[in-house]
Amino acid sequence: MRIAEIEVTRKPRTDAELNRRHLIAVARAAFADEGLDLPMREIARRAGLGIATVHRHFPARTDLVTAALAELVAECRGEMQASLDEPDPWRALSGAVHSFAEHRLHDRGLNQALFGSHPAAAAFAVDRREQASAMEQLVDRARESGAVRPDITAADVRVCLSAIASFRLAHSATHLHRLVELLLIGLAADDRTSPETSARRQAIP
Amino acid sequence: MRIAEIEVTRKPRTDAELNRRHLIAVARAAFADEGLDLPMREIARRAGLGIATVHRHFPARTDLVTAALAELVAECRGEMQASLDEPDPWRALSGAVHSFAEHRLHDRGLNQALFGSHPAAAAFAVDRREQASAMEQLVDRARESGAVRPDITAADVRVCLSAIASFRLAHSATHLHRLVELLLIGLAADDRTSPETSARRQAIP
DNA sequence: ATGGATGTGGAGCAGGTGTTCCGTATCAGG
DNA sequence: CCTGATACGGAACACCTGCTCCACATCCAT
Lengths: 205, 205
Hints:
Chain A is 72% helix and 0% strand. With 205 residues, chain A is mainly alpha-helical.
């Protein structure tokens, strides 16, 4: 009796645990490909499970979304840390923007949750604040070192990220990369454009 | 009998015509404020009419959307013509981009129809082609006159417009204008780094 | 004014969503 | 094995959407 009270979290049946992981994997792939608006029934169908099973593991829709996105968000946090560790201020900032865009390119659902008005976004409020604060550091360093123009603020970079996140043509790598390039030029100081850009400019007579 | 056949378009009852115009006005305001996804029932409610009346005047949802947006689209065409008439190539291009952004700021539904994947967009395919071709002229002129960098193409400007159209923070004038500014800097030639400096070089021989 | 053409309103249909219920199948400790 | 707790599947519910049907109201030419 007392043991039962202490052991609140009972070990779940192994098949149930397998189904849970399988569901997260399927949902993660599906959300990445087609966004967060996929019906629960469709996730269940692709996982080869019943709809009730999905709701047993994830009572509400947002629970499934947050579970599917959790490790991706952690991954983002790692990349942001890498940018903070980069010694060159411009490479740090532009690298963070690029890796943000890259996620957007490969995972349609992620930024929908991180930046959109999606209900599931609430679960990642803490991560969003962390990322915003880290990005602020990157911008400050870049401004102080003269890598970006003196009037550039964290708000400007937030505008850039939001533009990248909401970009409708983001499935096209060409278009997305062009947008990132144009925005980075907009941020950079006149003598400190991105390496790719300066290379291209030199090639043009 | 034969007269009835010839007179295919009969004059509608005056109250019906009034309701039709009222519906378009209500729908236009509603779509501008809250986007094109508003339910038909909500439009009917705001107009003080029954849902069946809405469907009599506009059999399908897209019919109402296109009717509500028709004069706005015509307005856009007029503004684009004004840009084509502007002698300064940079002012012409940046003006077109700015006025595009301004529409986005004041009408949430318009660019949703013009640039988004919304079903109603099909009705404005002709207008979109016209606008795209006009924009191409503006870009060509700007490139030839040296107002934008030599590698800038119409595709780049399309990327910019799409980014503006899909920008999620577009309800905030500050953020939207900042985005436009950053993008224009990304397009502009080095000696023309901000819209303000364009005043320096008014006339292009 | 009046009667038939024209227009209206709201209930109802069809299709789609998230979520719940409950009989049945499956696992795991005895 | 066998048996009870655990988990599953799919039908069903509640809600929302665009759209239709039809009895009733309104207009306007006669």
